[in-house]
Please model this.
Amino acid sequence: MNTRWNEKLRRNGFGWALVLPSLLFLGMFTYYPMLKSAWLSLFEQNLAVRTPVFVGMDNYKALLHDPVFVEVFRNNIWFAVGTVPVSMALAFVMALFADKAIRGKGLVRIAFFYPNMIPMIAAASIWLFLYMPQFGLFARFASWFTGSEVNLLGNPDTVLGSLIVMTVWKEAGYFMIFYLAGLQQIPKDLYESASVDGIGVLTQQLRITIPLTMPTTLFVTVVAITNAFKWVDHLWMMTKGGPDHASSLLLYYIYETTFSFNDQGMAAAMTVVMIVLLLVISCFQFAGWERKIHYQ
Amino acid sequence: MKNAAELSLSAKLRPEKAKQSLNRKFRFARRRRIAGQALWHAIMLLFAAAWLIPLIWMLRNAFLPKDASIGAGWSWDFTLDNFSRVWQGAPFGQYMWNTLLVTSGIFAVQIVTLTLAAYAFARVAFVGRNIVFMLFLVQIMVPSDVLIFSNYQIINELGLLDTKIGIMLPYFASAFGVFLLRQAFKQLPYELDEAARVEGCSSLGILLRIYMPLSRPVYLSFAIVSISFHWNDFLWPLIVTNSPENRLLTVGLAMFAKSTEAGAQWTDVSAATLIVTAPMLIGFLLFQRQFISSFMHSGIKG
Model:
């Protein structure tokens, strides 16, 4: 009996000792900051109110009535609506092409994936020039279309769309990778027997490929939506959220509120909103994981 | 279906003519398939070409003399002046060294923390394992980007602002890596464990001599994902650092691009952008297959 107890104690001590280093860092930079944000969001503390004052849910109420926050939130929704479906559809089509042994597939893989390898800040500096009025390639192209000079990033109507185009360019290749992996798991004889039955290529994609890559699609959807709320570097470089908050996104607004306006209570409240949002999105991912496990 | 029935009917009546029409039908179908393939190739290669435009644009401007970049037409002028000017204008060598230190430092510590935790989750049955495992999941769901505000305060309280350690500290543990590695460890046969134990090997010895070497591909995958992520990271290093001695490449590039008068000096900024992106781009071109397969790997399991 005693030796069994000893063994149990040793095993538990060993297990906890092994996870302790990770747990320590996670605690310091994930759990503690989360709790701290939740706590701070109940206080008012900014340039005017130096010592924190307990205000309960007032920060959250103020957020609802803050026209800028509402606009930024709406921007972020539009940003997600604009980037997620387009980049995923492109990724799917690209993966179909890059999966089969056809001419040019190596080039397509490289062309499509390289944007993922360069920092967002570098991509932003390249695209800043592409969009620059008069000189930029895309700006010239746009003004050739409309007949007048176009400032794509300086106009509230076009700025978000321009950033969406760039983000699709940056992300589609990343999602292509997941689809490539998904495609490889589909048994090839399914296509062979479909061909023998005289079923056309398009119908095969519709009936075989799309249903069988559903777990991948679910996974990619969650990653894409999460990313839509995380991209922020390009704003710092290209627009600073302007003109007139037309291109600002949630995380950038948190950054501004923290470091430019020094409004800690509000920044904490927004952080909590972001955390809740991400947790909700991730729950869908869990459902997806569950399904994937059942498949195996 | 109707067509086929008609054909077979006509085949009975006039075999010669039916054969001809069948042949024509096949030939038509084949031609249509080839045309479809050609169109599909053309569209995809067009997409690929469109995707390369920003890269070509950057390369062109990086090697173009300053005044030629403002002209409307295409110019074949070539110069390396931009690079020497940029290299003197900002300490990019120092930035690159810093980035190298930070990314490899993060990865080195991660290897240790990941391996230990992954082994515990895969092979040690300790009380509370499932709860701790759930706690780890939280980090995957809430990435540190969102927590910049509180993490900045913590780094500040620790007195580590504007240090390389301050940039690295939040990333020393990676729940994502733990998951990746735990999966790999779980797939190793248990018999190896027992055999080694019979030979008198300790738990840590088994981890070091059996688990780690056998999981090398997973470590490689994680290395590529982790290093490319931290090489490219921007906002956190921007917040934490404010002196050139500790600035990373991405932050240096952003500062450089903002300080130059936009428009007139974009050849310089293009050259700087090329300097910053070159290491990752070259690495990617050389080891394209490994890069893509490691991203696939991490995607499937992550």
